[in-house]
Each structure stands twice: as C-alpha cells, then as structure tokens.
Amino acid sequence: MSALNTTDPQIYQLVKQEEKRQKDVLEMIPSENYTSEAVMEAMGTVLGNKYSEGYPKKRYYQGNEVVDQVESLAQERAKKLFGVPFVNVQPHSGSPANLAVYVALLEPLKGKIMGLSLAFGGHLTHGQPVSATGKFFKSVLYTLGKDGQLDYEAIEKQAIKEKPDIIVCGFTAYPRIIDFKRFAAIADKCGAYLMADISHITGLIIAGAHPSPVPFAHIVTTTTHKTLRGPRGAMIMVTDKGLKKNPDLPKLIDSAIIPGLQGGPHDNQTAAIAVALKEAASTPFKKYGQQIVKNAKVLAKELSKYGFNLVSGGTENHLLLIDLSNKNVNGAMAALALEVGGIVLNKNAVPNDSMPPFYPSGIRLGTPAITTRGMKEKDMIKVASWINRVIEEVAGNELPQDKEQRSEFWKAFKKQVVKNKKLLAISKEVKTFCVKFPVPGVN
Fold this sequence. Notes:
Elements: H1 2-7, H2 9-24, E1 26-27, H3 37-43, E2 54-55, E3 58-59, H4 65-82, E4 86-88, H5 94-105, E5 112-116, H6 132-135, E6 138-142, H7 152-162, E7 166-169, H8 180-190, E8 193-197, H9 202-207, E9 219-223, E10 234-238, H10 240-245, H11 249-261, H12 267-280, H13 283-305, E11 309-310, E12 319-323, H14 331-340, E13 343-344, E14 346-348, E15 362-366, H15 368-372, H16 377-394, H17 403-417, H18 421-434
Parallel strand pairs: 1-13, 5-6, 5-7, 7-8, 8-9
Antiparallel strand pairs: 2-3, 4-10, 9-10, 11-12, 12-15, 14-15
C-alpha cells in the first residue's frame, strides 16, 4: 500500500491500526469474518472503475464485455454450488436483497410479511416496524417458545390466522438448526412464499454442517461476507420450487434490483463474490464449515461449566447467545469489558428480555472468524476461560433504574474498565495467543 501511504498517510495509518487490532484480538462477532487475500485483491481491481447498469448482455452502457463475463461466472458458480436455477449477484448488501424480494412480490402497504421478532433473534429486514420492510408493507412477527427454540406449531397457527404473503425463516441470534421442511409445510398450508435468509449459515450449508433450504424454500437470500468469507455483498436465489410456483420470479427479482432499488452494481464486489464462491466449492472450505460448528459446541460446553446460561441450552451452529442475568452484569458492560480483555463480541437481547435495548441482558458470540485463523476445539477451552475471568471481574455491577443515574453510572464504569489491570493482563495473554494464528491477508 505504498501509493496509499504516499497520497494519504492519515488513512494509511488508520488501516494499519485496524490491521493490528484484527491481529491482536479474538474476533467473535458471529456475523464477521476474514476474507482471503484473493478476495481482497479482487475488491481492489480496476473493475471498480466500471459502470454496468443492467445485466449480462443487457447493459445500458458500452464497454461491458469483460464485466459480463465476471458477473456470469459469479452467477454460474452460485447456481452450481447451491443447486438453484437462478441467482442475482448484484445486491449491494443483505438489506436491499431482502427488500428487493418484497418489492418484487408484494403490493405496497397491502402485502404481508411474517418473520421472527427482532427481540427474539430476527433481523430488521424481516418485517420489523422500525425498518422500511415494516413501514412499506404489513408485517406480523412470530416469537420463540419458552425453551428459546422455534415453536413450529405456534408459528403454523399464527400463519393460518394471519395469511401472510411471505414467511421469512433465517435469523441473526438463533443457535439451533432451522427445520426448513417444517417451515415449507407451514407456508404451503397458507399459500405463502417461503423465503429463507441464510446469511449467517451459508458457509455451514455449503459444508454440510446445516441442512439446506433449497429443496423447501421458494426464494433464498444471503449475504456473502459472513460464513461464506466473501466481500460485503448479497445474492438472491430462486429455487426449482420457486419457479414452479411462479415462473416469473427471476424477471420480477431482476427488475426489483434494477431499476427498482439500485443503479449500477459494484463490479469489483461481483468479482470478489465469484472468487469466494470458487473457494467455497473446495474441500478445505467444507472442513472449515464443519470446524466452525465443532468449535462452537465445545465453547458452549466449556462456558456451561462456568455457569453461563446459554439460551436454548446450547448451540447447533456457529453462534452462542448467553443470558448474563445470573452473573449480575448486563450485556453492554460485559461486551465492553471483554473488548478491553481482547475478546470482541456484541451485546444482544435475549428472549423475553426485561432490560432496555441499549443495556440488554445478553451477549452474542460466534466461532467463524477464529476458526478462519485456524483455532480448534482445544483452543476453545482457553477462550472460555478468558471469557469467564472477564465476566467474574465485572460481575455485580447492576444498572440503576433511574435514567440520569444510569448515564452517570455508565460513564464511571467505562472509565474504570478501560484501566482495569486484570482485564489488561488478560488482553496481553490473548494477544500472545493470537500470534500463533495468522489473519488472512494481514499476516
């Protein structure tokens, strides 16, 4: 990056600082990962200079002969990898991909979406009232059972009563296997489209570590930067079942992306998606996806030994959701303290959370990024120990009920925790440990 250093040393130094941060910490936000050096290179190519509104061989601009080949290659690789007849690789990210499906199939202010409530592990774009998907379309939200798992009978009753046009399955904080076949039966019973948002578990599905929705859903959406390890982007897929229900689905979805929601695609991003898809078709990637789950299960087992309350009782995928109520510390405090200790994850609401959104009861963590660095089951024992030591250090800090007192309490807590000697000592241990595990494209 010598040219960047010469032209803009300020940005260059910030990039270097971020490289150091990524090397020195355990990155455990389950929606984050490291791309390969090849994917990074594709993102930084001259393809980013081109404008290519439209689709292969149907562009509004000249000079797209090469770009057409890039996009077609990405499409074909995705179709082969997932076993689907149609893929759109142009969505800039996951949110516009999901919105495009609704725009393609629903009448504004009349069409109805049914997705999991955000408070129970759903996503904003699955019909949450604060999202455009909940403002421009009708929405009804389902929840989880008392055991923290999907209650398919309750979902079926709700779907039959509400008669949604689209049922969305696929979540952001759900640690269990999704029964796509059961969801399909529910959707078929009420005449709805079934849309599977597999953004979090795409890599697991490719690896055979989670069942695929392709035989059961009509439409599948996914981001490309989580367990797939590609660039930030998204794809929309139509299955054979989807084509059977509506042969016009590909045309409707293409039109929803452009001219409906976007202009030109990011061609460098498309190339990087193609590279990631090629990598995902390899044997090492399949082993990687299986290792993510192995690591998560061991981590869950070890944390349970320390008395952590795992929502749903454990995990079957890449993430863990932990209710910290029994540790007398909220998720915001825990996440900050863990970051000081060199472990990066996020605060998160748990089912039926009584705490305010900015100070939820839980934390969400996952194993995709640390597995990319080469960590295995035995390493999860150390990780669990560090997490426990951090939480023990900050346990007992109960948040005041009064909002003004709460604000002052939080300021004081932050000031103290960043100087905490025990947490800083753990951070040094983590940093030394991380040296053994290179970060792709950085080390």
